[in-house]
Amino acid sequence: MAEIFSVSTSQAKQCIDITERVREIVRKSGVKSGLCQVMVLHATAAIAINENDDPNIGVDLLTALDRAIPDHAGWLHDRIDNNAQAHIKAAILGPSELIPIADGDLLLGTWQGLMLIELDGPRSTRRVAVSLIS
Fold it and tell me: What's the Cα-to-Cα distance from 18 to each of 25, 58, 67, 69, 84, rounded to whole Å?
């Protein structure tokens, strides 16, 4: 089973908690045990699992990425559409996560959540695919 949903972003770079949206898809599916793959269908965004209780974690993650991979640092791709840093960051973070499903729910730790990481926004539509394997 696969389902795609859309997320709108409002900032150039931001972390958006999508845990509950994915959790709803898993619960609705009736899958009790298996795997849930969550993948962003874009080359300048990423999916990560991290703490979702303190929004400062997302801010800190974006700050660390900016320090490691600065905007407009002579990247060759900037000559085409000026977003090379977003592609590089997205490639390092990765487009997807694989989460176990147990008892019909995502098997995540107490403070873990799924984050859509926008790296080249704002965008009116970021598509996220959720695939379930039972």
Answer: 11, 13, 25, 25, 25
- Do 128 and 8 form a contact (C-beta atoms < 8 A)? no
Task: Give the predicted TM-score (pTM) of the model.
Answer: 0.95
Fill in the DSSP letter of residue 21: H
Asked if the model's pLDDT at residue 32 lies above 90, the reply is yes
102: left (phi over 0), alpha (psi -120 to 50) or beta: beta
Average pLDDT over residues 16-36: 98
Instruction: Identify any residues that bridge with 36 across adjacent strands, giving them in sequence order.
Output: 99, 132
Fold of 2-70+83-133: Jelly Rolls (2.60.120)
Count CB atoms within 10 A of the CB of residue 127: 14
